[in-house]
Model the fold of this input.
Amino acid sequence: MNPVEVQNLTVAYQKKPVLKNVSFTVPEGKLIGIIGPNGAGKSTLIKAVLGMIPKATGEVRVYDKLYRAKERVVGYVPQRGSVDWDFPTNALDVVLMGRYGHIGWFKRPGKKDKELALNCLEKVGMQEYATRQISQLSGGQQQRVFLARALAQDAKIYFMDEPFVGVDAATERAIIELLNELKQQGKTVLVVHHDLQTVKDYFDHVILLNINVIAEGPTEDTFTLKNLHQTYGGTLAFLEKGDILVGQK
Amino acid sequence: MSYEAWILIVGSLAGICCGITGCFLILRRLAMLADAISHTVLLGMVLAFLISQSLNGFYMLIGAAAIGVLTAVFVQLLHSSGIQEDASIGVVFTFLFAVGVILLSLYADHVHLDVDHALMGEITFVPWDLVKWGFLPELPKAFLMLTTVLIINLLIIILFYKELKITSFDPQMAAAIGVPVLLIHYILMGMVSMTTVASFDSVGAILVVAMLIAPGASAYLLTDKLNIMLIMSALLGVAAAIIGYYLASWLDVSISGSMATVNGVIFAIFFFFAPHKGVLSKRWSQRKLKLT
Done:
């Protein structure tokens, strides 16, 4: 049983498709990078898979069942810039939001939820900032809070939208350690990623996306110069860099 | 109860109802949508009157809530089909309001439901506009309506606190964990509509926007916690009503105008002098940074 199976997914905002006939299968217990240029539809892919935006066509199966948000097997980390960090709340409170799906209607987070949330903050090295107003945190710390919130969701599959953007080197290392830890626990993690230099170090499996899926498979076989050419088109500056990145076989 | 006491009570109730609802409008950046709804509910009230042939407050609340939510739905539809949000609000708002004005001038000309009254309100007459509901003694209509709406608002906020909070902070995440984001949005818009109508008699459609937005905006400058922001916003709404009343009777001016003005003055004070988020405090800490 594959954790995620996408078939013939097409998404269009206006008339022009943002994603066209996207199909792929995600293997269990792997770290998967979703790679592609700006406007390739990476974030849209996550949102469509999670049912946050309407699909024109296509089907998403999670563990062989048509996906519904209520089943809580999927955790989500949105882009850090997508929320208002001036919102009147603190770090612990944001992490507790990860429990909301489990708590159910009309109930408040209890003592156990709070303990679990604190525990998740500790895992990302943020326990001392629990009561800190979120606007008082640095970009890296905010990203860690988002990650802690995803951990609190206690999901089997995680979707993360650019978790490495705008974070310091220490946070980047902490995040990748955490992702590996999740993998060890048998969880499947899909990450929208920008920095081509780190792809080979970070991911077991990649999906190269540019409106269609250009290639997908184990990083070794898939993250090749030829596939990158196809994904990124004629971006010359990149190609020179790409030579160094991918290395000639 | 004395004339003065009724005005103070009704003004304070409006202050609480508007204050707590307004907090969510500010956090969701929906102040302009609230402005729109405060006008389009006129259509709801006229329709309620035409259908029920009475000025019963209960029908007015339902009519207003329905049209208020409809306003939000139309704005959402236009916006999601590619029209800018402010343009969507502008078109829907003026259209529904205009239909309300036309219906009013066509059918309801001879009853006490005039545009002037709906827009400006007149809290001065509130103590004499009595109705009898069920086993209760005769009470001012505005008092009964505001109490009803306050109970509904409090129930919604208490029951859906988590959902209101997460959909305000991170609607994407909320959608991803299966919270019905749009439904919560429409529930909130229903709250705004009912709050507006219940406050109409006292402060009118234009000034109700001041009571919705100003206390929440002030409270936002004073705290880092949502629950405290809600409480402070309610308290500031009450303070503005009470200070506004006494100011009006001292200067012999419009009571509702005075209440709205005090709301603005309170906001201005906190805008400059709030402990951490005020302009002066920010300047001060920047200067301290420069010196060190």
User: Anything to note?
Assistant: Chain B touches chain A at residues 27, 82, 159, 161-163, 165-166, 168-170, 172-179, 220, 223-226, 228-229 (CB under 8 Å). The mean pLDDT of chain B is 90. Residues 181-222 of chain B form the longest helix (42 residues).
